[in-house]
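Open question from group meeting: does this chain pack into something compact, or does most of it stay loose? Before anyone orders reagents, we agreed to write out a predicted structure and look at it together. Recording both the input and the output here so the notebook holds the full record.
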Amino acid sequence: MQSGVRQRLVGAFVLICLAAILWPVLFSKNVNPVLDRRSQIPPIPAFEKYEIKEPVKPVNVSEVMHYQAESADDNLKPSSKALAEQSKTPAAAQPDASADKSLPQKPSFTEQGLPVYWALQLASFSQQDKADRLKQALLAKGYKVDMQTVKTAKGERIRVYVGPKLDKSVLEKIKPAIDKEFKVQSLLVQFSPR
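Structure tokens returned:
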């Protein structure tokens, strides 16, 4: 009989819960809920009308000169006035071809648009202390030195570089002096930092 009492108590509890849920729905006073039908969109703002005035030329501005682009034919045919001026200039005033070689070269760029750096590879050592001694000697002479560790077929090697420089000609000029002073045969290589 205990199970019968338990079932009645559970049934009564379920009916009370249903009554609590359905009571407000069945006996509410407000049958039609009121919806706010006013627009929530703000009114259109009022814009001021602007008149565009005709541009006025300033008083103290001079006339702009219009230049015509030169065609390729104009460059090929020098005028007689230019020829006369050219013949009057002395031969010493002409630029020397050897002077162009002393000017620094324009740096070249990689496919990614980065500049190409150059360095002198002086030596490749298997022992760190030998590479450090050469580095200290180069630093004492005022050279910019870089060392890189590279894995080769013979094992790990430490390469000693002077540089890097953007201008290859600078390294070409100091190469003979470094080779003679440190008794090496340096290589001019394209430098890539790691």
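Observations to bring back to the group:
The beta strands are 117-125, 145-152, 155-165, 187-191.
The mean pLDDT is 75.
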